[in-house]
Amino acid sequence: MDKHSAPLDQVFAALADPTRRALLERLAAEDGQTVSALAAPIAMSLPAVMKHLDVLEGAHLITRRKTGRTVHCRLAASPMEDAMAWLARYQRFWAESLDRLAAIVEARDPT
């Protein structure tokens, strides 16, 4: 494993959990939410949500800022760019494979 794969591994590990994906979706819809607001619709304890936010922050997918006793979270989507680039290679693979399959089907279809 090279030094560039560790951040990518963290991003994919963070995105593997549906609760963390839901938290990111909420931040994408309305950035700068408090931890309490983010946790409200999730059926788990606040400490459990905080652990999910720790993972997201560790993967650099969110930032947290404390003002008094209130913690605000913001989306930091730039680490997902590397994940998107990695996935794009496989998108090209599937597109080329499906193009070849379509060509075979068309060649066999006399109509």
Structure description:
With 111 residues, the protein is α+β, with helices and mostly antiparallel strands. The chain contains five helices and three strands. The chain has a single domain (5-108), classed as Orthogonal Bundle (Arc Repressor Mutant, subunit A). It has a three-stranded antiparallel sheet. The radius of gyration is 20 Å and the shape is elongated. The N and C termini lie far apart (51 Å). The model has no long low-confidence stretch (mean pLDDT 88).
Overall body shape: elongated
Q: What topology, given as strand order, has the largest sheet?
A: 1-3-2
Distance between the termini: 51 Å
- Number of beta strands: 3
- Structural class label: alpha+beta
CATH architecture identity: Orthogonal Bundle
Taken together, the total number of domains comes to 1
What is the CATH fold-level name?
Arc Repressor Mutant, subunit A
- Which CATH C-level class is it? Mainly Alpha
Our estimate of the beta-strand percent is 5-15%
In short:
This is DNA-binding transcriptional ArsR family regulator. This protein has 111 residues and is of the alpha+beta class. It contains five helices and three strands.
Which features does this protein show?
three-stranded antiparallel beta sheet; single chain; 111 residues; Arc Repressor Mutant, subunit A; alpha+beta; 64% helix; 13% strand
Describe the secondary structure blueprint for this structure.
Layout: H1 5-15, H2 18-29, E1 33-34, H3 35-39, H4 46-58, E2 62-67, E3 70-75, H5 79-108
Antiparallel strand pairs: 1-3, 2-3
Helix pairs in contact: 1-4, 1-5
